[in-house]
């Protein structure tokens, strides 16, 4: 017996929707049922440009797609400022929700979205694709191994890319009325999630933004960073930037081992991903080399990470629709912790880089 098929609609024609629509087409338990835009012409052009099959319905408004009774779930790649309105409406229409990151502008908005999802019995998942790559599960095995990794002590994450002048002037991620969190929300989200992942999703006690963030004329963050502190002595820091060369690094240092990843959000190759891990490393007698040296671990996959994400999301939706299951709370819980840390970083920046206590 094959996997049950979940019918997904896409609300909005953002560039990232091209990638996710491909993932929906490749997922064995999902199908693209409809796409909606603010105009019928734009939706038709998007469908044609991406080679959508004739059965995919095209709507000239988001409301029309949400009113389609055949749609089981929606993927929402709209600007962050629009998330709370359309995510809440989708939940009220009983549509399961795959929401682009950052999920909201602040935790209060996020809680409103989740309250509606819970009251309407719909599944929520954010669109942090790398969490679903098989490599991530292998990294989690190493990080949870007390003999090889021990206890986490220091974590570092960096995500940067060099945006061109048109991006820095016109992209929605630099517009205060569309994506006011800028680089912090767009790529800082990934850094924060990676830190929480390496810390077994334990929230830090205190967050302090690094001084001298770069803001554009409208006050949107183009580059920033922060240091996170836990009560048990763990420390983490991250840097995110639209102004530096492409870098996507994660390092986790434990009492017995170290993990390094140089492409943690987007593997260098679509169907192969690696990480290095070292345990109880030291030097040889003459201090000329490492002994033992870290080892490289390669994970192959027959499906890209975004397809794994859609497949998992559809599996959860199918369990609810066909087996009277309940929404999985793992994903909204992790998302909320990510949002709390982002809020703390933004608050610290706005408060002259004062330490901010995180309270759940």
The description of the largest β-sheet is: 10 strands, mixed
CATH superfamily of the largest domain: Dihydrodipicolinate Reductase, domain 2
Instruction: Count helical runs.
Output: 11
Q: CATH fold name of the largest domain, please?
A: Dihydrodipicolinate Reductase, domain 2
Class by helix and strand content?
A: alpha/beta
- List how many beta strands DSSP finds: 16
Task: Report strand %.
Answer: 25-35%
Helix content: 25-40%
Uncertain segments of ≥5 residues (pLDDT<50)? none
Intertermini distance: 43 Å
Topology as H/E string?
A: EHEHEHEHEHEHEHHHEEEEEEEEHHE
For the record, the CATH architecture of the largest domain stands as: 2-Layer Sandwich
Number of domain modules: 2
Rg computed from alpha carbons, rounded to a whole number of angstroms:
21 Å
Question: What's the rounded overall pLDDT mean?
Answer: 97
CATH class of the largest domain: Alpha Beta
Shape: globular
Furnish the topology, listing elements before pairings.
Blueprint: E1 6-11, H1 16-26, E2 30-36, H2 40-49, E3 57-59, H3 62-66, E4 73-76, H4 83-92, E5 96-99, H5 107-119, E6 124-126, H6 134-143, E7 152-162, H7 165-170, H8 182-186, H9 188-198, E8 206-209, E9 214-215, E10 221-229, E11 235-241, E12 243-254, E13 257-261, E14 272-279, E15 295-300, H10 305-323, H11 330-350, E16 356-357
Helix pairs in contact: 1-10, 4-5, 5-11, 9-11
Task: Describe this protein's structure.
With 360 residues, this protein is of the alpha/beta class. The protein folds into two domains: 6-130 and 305-328, 3-Layer(aba) Sandwich (Rossmann fold), CATH 3.40.50; 131-303 and 339-357, 2-Layer Sandwich (Dihydrodipicolinate Reductase, domain 2), CATH 3.30.360. The chain is 34% helix and 26% strand. It contains eleven helices and 16 strands. The strands form two sheets. Strands 7, 8, 9, 10, 11, 12, 13, 14, 15 and 16 form a ten-stranded mixed sheet that branches. Strands 3-2-1-4-5-6 form a six-stranded parallel sheet, sandwiched between helices. The longest helix has 21 residues, at 330-350. The radius of gyration is 21 Å and the shape is globular. It starts with 5 loop residues before the first strand and ends with a strand.
């Amino acid at each position: 017996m094959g996997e049950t098929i979940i019918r997904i609609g896409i609300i909005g024609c953002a560039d990232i929707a091209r990638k996710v629509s491909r993932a929906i087409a490749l997922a064995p338990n999902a199908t693209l049922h409809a796409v909606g835009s603010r105009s019928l012409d734009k939706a038709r052009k998007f469908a044609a440009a991406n080679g959508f099959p004739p059965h995919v319905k095209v709507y000239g408004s988001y409301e029309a797609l949400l009113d389609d009774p055949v749609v089981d779930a929606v993927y929402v790649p709209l600007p962050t400022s629009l998330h709370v309105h359309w995510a809440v409406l989708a939940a009220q229409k009983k549509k399961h929700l795959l929401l682009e990151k950052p999920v909201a502008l602040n935790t209060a908005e996020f809680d409103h979205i989740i309250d509606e999802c819970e009251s309407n019995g719909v599944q929520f998942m954010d669109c942090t694709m790398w969490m679903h790559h098989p490599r991530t599960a292998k990294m989690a095995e190493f990080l949870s191994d007390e003999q090889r990794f021990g206890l986490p002590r220091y974590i570092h994450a960096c995500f940067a890319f060099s945006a061109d002048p048109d991006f820095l002037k016109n992209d929605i991620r630099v517009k205060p009325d569309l994506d006011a969190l800028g680089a912090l929300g767009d790529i800082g989200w990934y850094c924060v999630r990676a830190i929480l992942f390496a810390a077994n999703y334990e929230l830090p006690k205190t967050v302090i933004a690094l001084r001298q963030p770069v803001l554009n004329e409208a006050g949107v963050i183009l580059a920033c960073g922060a240091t996170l502190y836990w009560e048990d002595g763990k420390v983490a820091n991250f840097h995110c930037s639209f102004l530096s060369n492409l870098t996507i690094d994660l390092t986790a240092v434990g009492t017995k081992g170290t993990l390094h990843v140089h492409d943690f959000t987007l593997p260098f190759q679509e169907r192969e991903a690696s990480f290095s891990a070292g345990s109880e490393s030291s030097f040889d007698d003459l201090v000329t080399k490492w002994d033992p040296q870290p080892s490289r671990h390669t994970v192959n996959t027959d499906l890209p990470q975004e397809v794994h994400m859609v497949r998992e999301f559809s599996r959860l939706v199918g369990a609810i629709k066909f087996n009277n299951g309940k929404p999985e709370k793992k994903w909204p819980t992790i998302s909320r912790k990510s949002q709390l840390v982002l809020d703390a970083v933004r608050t610290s920046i706005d408060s002259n880089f004062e330490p901010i206590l995180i309270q759940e």
